[in-house]
User: Which sequence fits this backbone?
C-alpha cells in the first residue's frame, strides 16, 4: 500500500512510530480518521461563533410567538443553519462509523474512538446553542 501525505511518502520508521506494529494499512486508517476529525474541527471553528452570534441576535430581538408552519425568516435562517451544521457533523460521525479497524490495530481503534467522542461533543455543542432558540420559542408561546 502506497501512502503519501502532502506529497511526502512517510518512512517505515514514521509509520512504525504512529501505529501499533508498523502496518501501513493501520497508518492509512489513522490518517483517514485524523483528517475526518480535522475537517469537523475546521468546519465548526469556521461557523460556531457566527451561528452563536446569530442566535444571540435573534434572542435579543425578543421574537414574537409563531407557529412552525409560518416560521419568520430570521427563525427559519437559524433553523436551516443548525440543520446544515448538524448534517455535516452527523455525516462525519457516519464516516467514522464506516472505518473498520482490525482487532490488532490498537492505535487506530483508540484514534477512531477519540474522534467519535470529539465529533459527538461538537454536535452536542451545536445542539445546545439551538436548544436556547427552541426554549425561547417555547417561552414566548406561554
Assistant:
Amino acid at each position: 500500500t502506497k501512502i503519501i501525505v502532502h506529497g511526502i511518502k512517510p518512512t517505515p520508521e514514521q509509520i512504525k512510530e504512529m501505529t501499533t506494529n508498523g502496518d501501513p494499512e493501520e497508518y492509512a486508517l489513522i490518517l483517514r480518521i485524523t483528517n475526518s476529525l480535522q475537517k469537523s474541527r475546521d468546519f465548526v471553528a469556521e461557523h460556531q461563533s457566527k451561528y452563536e452570534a446569530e442566535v444571540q441576535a435573534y434572542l435579543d430581538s425578543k421574537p414574537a410567538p409563531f407557529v412552525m408552519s409560518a416560521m419568520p425568516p430570521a427563525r427559519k435562517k437559524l433553523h436551516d443553519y443548525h440543520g446544515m451544521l448538524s448534517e455535516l457533523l452527523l455525516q462525519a460521525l457516519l464516516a467514522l462509523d464506516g472505518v473498520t479497524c482490525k482487532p490488532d490495530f490498537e492505535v487506530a481503534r483508540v484514534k477512531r474512538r477519540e474522534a467519535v467522542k470529539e465529533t459527538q461533543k461538537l454536535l452536542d455543542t451545536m445542539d445546545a446553542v439551538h436548544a436556547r432558540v427552541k426554549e425561547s420559542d417555547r417561552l414566548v408561546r406561554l
Remarks:
- The chain has four helices and no strands.
- The chain has a mean pLDDT of 91.
- Helices lie at 12-18, 24-60, 73-97, 106-141.
